[in-house]
Amino acid sequence: MAEREFSADEAAVLAPFVTNLDGPIFGLRNLPEVVKGALFSRYSRSDKDLRRILLDEFIQAPEADFGRIVNGQDARDQLVAVKQAEAFYDRVLVGYGDDSVAELGGAHIACEQISNIAAKALEDSRIGIDPLEKSTRYVAFNKRDAQGRYRYYREPQIMQSRCAERYEAALDRLFQTYDELLPPTLAWVRAQTARDTHTSERAYNSATRAKALDLLRGLLPMATLTNVGLFGNGRAFEYLLIKLSASPLAELQQLAARLQDELDQLIPSFVKRPKTARGDAYRHYLAQTRAMLAAQVHVQTSGLRKHPAPSVWMADYDRDAEIKLAAAIMYPYTDLPLEQVQNLARAMSTAERVELIRTAVGERQNRFHRPSRAFEEVFYTFDFLADIGAYRDLQRHRMLTQERQRYSVIHGYSTPPELQAAGVADAFEAALEHAASVALAVEDELPEAAQYVVPFAFRIRWRMKLNLREAYHLLELRSSPQGHPSYRTIAQEMFRQIKAVHPALAEGIQFVDLNDYPLERLAAEQRLDQKLRDLGGTAL
Ligand SMILES: Cc1cc2nc3c(=O)[nH]c(=O)nc-3n(C[C@H](O)[C@H](O)[C@H](O)COP(=O)(O)OP(=O)(O)OC[C@H]3O[C@@H](n4cnc5c(N)ncnc54)[C@H](O)[C@@H]3O)c2cc1C
To answer: Among 186, 193, 274, 368, which residue's Cβ finds the most Cβ atoms within 10 Å?
Structure first.
């Protein structure tokens, strides 16, 4: 009997857990994460097919306690059953022998009422964790909690210090100003851009409100509470938990502990490391290295005066870009060693190389048409000094390397010119100045915690190293008309600087939008109207 064939009894047992019983491609369903993970880990150590492993080694193995795990009355029951069968699952998972086994179980976790510092720490993850955060563009951050207080993180160390009152006064003022300026800013935006007959009231209201919220987001401090949903695998969560718990910030340490508790109820077998001696050692390594580096760099840099710097500066780029790219483009189409292909690329004329690069770019019809991995051969390094709002958005890109300096008020802030025109800039700036004075006072005593006071309008410095392929994606996405002007300007300037050093390579980045738009969201909202009409419904 071919392995894939099952008796009628076996088929009946298996059917609820697989999307088909006889095809070579099938999905798993109705199975807890630990069973799916353990099943896949057996894959690499068995010559049976997966459905046979599921049947023989899990469903029919008493040790696996499969019936209780799968048929538990509720999630708690299931968790108890998983815990009881833990030794069995651990043995299966350990048998696999590689850390990547912890990638085989995933979980959705909601992190609510966390500060923007915590949200950014979660979103700093790259491979294996996918975040989605409450938007400052679609949600007004002026709501109060049940006690009538604005929703920001009351940092425990600050609240126990002599700055507590000043902290609350400065943050209350930021939120109150945000709240008070919203109606006049919205009225100004609407007065500037009247609704035309092609635009629905819904699209117009939504686009103008988004614009007003975009203009005022600079008032929100890093302490602003927000919600972040995460979908991730165990391995990525383990690393995240260790990083968070090694942080000097109490909020991040507590967040790590809470995340661990919740993940222990969902994918316990995949998030054990942070609780072991190995996790402790890693945490210690991260915290100790950071402390020692901070001290050493302080010695090196103290007394240095800051040089003025542009907001977007290309610090480095590939001098051999065309040759490297041409070689990488040809490589998969030959049998030659890379060195020989590189020599060939070097010997080609510029015209020949450019022709090859044009062929590799191909006929892109939209920004989703991405050229091949050869374009990852070329790199650029940028240094930015821009408002935290822009940093928050660009930080979300993961196929690159980014690192920031601390959130502080020392680089000053940016006021959107529209707020001047709307006649609300004075109130906006007064609230920021007030917050800056409190941030500096807190910094004297509690330098780490002082970061919570800093509003998004203040500038931050960060560096980014990215390859040409990611540059295509980032520049085209982040210059698109619906983007926030802060990061659109950065993306446009990055494009100009790349074009200045590599005109032939920039030619392919053809969906960068260098125009300005008074109402960024309008076209996107009009497209949404069309999609809603096609679906026969209204927006939620
Ligand atoms: C107009 C606009 C509005 C936004 N609104 C919100 C919002 O309300 N809330 C919010 O949280 N975020 C929002 N974002 C951020 C957005 O969700 C992305 O996190 C961000 O744009 C990074 O884009 P990316 O994932 O395509 O790029 P990168 O991380 O740079 O990745 C490059 C490409 O690699 C691939 N890739 C990378 N990681 C993965 C992965 N884990 N799985 C599969 N493929 C992957 C994808 O093809 C991706 O396009 C918004 C972005 C824009 C432009």
So the answer is: 274
What contacts 361, CB < 8 A, 6 or more positions away? Answer: 371, 507, 508
Cα–Cα dist 379/469, whole Å: 9
Closest C-alpha among 233, 185, 227 to residue 209:
185
Residue 194: exposure state from Cβ atoms within 10 A (0-12, 13-18, ≥19)? exposed
User: What is the whole-number distance in angstroms between the Cα of residue 530 and the centre of ligand 1?
Assistant: 23
**For ligand 1, atom 49, which residue shows the shortest CA distance?**
473
CA distance 76 to 297: 50
Q: Are 208 and 187 in contact (CB under 8 A)?
A: no
Residues 6+ apart with CB under 8 A from 97: none
Q: Is residue 345 part of a domain?
A: yes
Closest CA to 268 of 33, 43, 67, 74: 33
Q: Which two tokens stand for residue 26?
A: 């099938």
Ramachandran region, residue 109 (left: φ > 0; alpha: ψ -120 to 50; beta: rest) = beta
Q: How many other CB atoms sit within 10 Å of the CB of residue 257?
A: 12
Q: Which CATH number do you get for residue 466?
A: 3.30.1360.170
Residue 129 alpha carbon, nearest atom of ligand 1: 41
Question: Residues 224, 225, 227, 232: is their CA dihedral positive or negative?
Answer: positive
**Ligand 1 site: residues with CB under 6 angstroms?**
130, 132-133, 135, 396-399, 470, 473-474, 477, 482-483
CA of 474 to the centre of ligand 1 (A): 9
For residue 477, which atom of ligand 1 is closest to its CA? 53
Say how many Å lie between the CA of residue 396 and the centre of ligand 1.
Answer: 7
Answer yes or no: pTM beyond 0.90: yes
Q: Which residues contact 36 (CB under 8 A, 6 or more apart)?
A: 28, 104, 105
Q: Looking at the structure, do residues 72 and 121 belong to the same domain, yes or no?
A: no
Distance 231 CA to ligand 1 centre (A): 13
β-partners of residue 132 are: 229
pLDDT in tens, 73-121: 666 666 777 777 777 777 777 776 677 888 989 999 999 999 999 999 9
User: Tens of pLDDT along 8-59?
Assistant: 999 999 999 999 999 989 999 999 888 898 898 888 888 899 999 999 988 8
Same domain, residue pair 248 and 324:
no
Specify the residue with its C-alpha closest to ligand 1, atom 20.
Answer: 396
Strands (E), 251-397: 312-317, 379-387
Give Cα separations from 138 to 113, 208, 212, 280, 514 (angstroms): 17, 11, 10, 40, 25
Report the domain count for the chain: 3
What number does the ligand 1 atom closest to the CA of 131 have?
11
Going through 61-196 in order, the beta strands assigned E by DSSP cover 106-115, 129-133
Range of the domain at 508: 312-405+460-529
Residue with tokens 């009538």: 148
Q: How far apart are alpha carbons 76 and 80 in whole angstroms?
A: 6
The answer to whether residue 245 sits within a structural domain is yes
Taking CA atoms only, the protein residue closest to ligand 1 atom 2 is 483
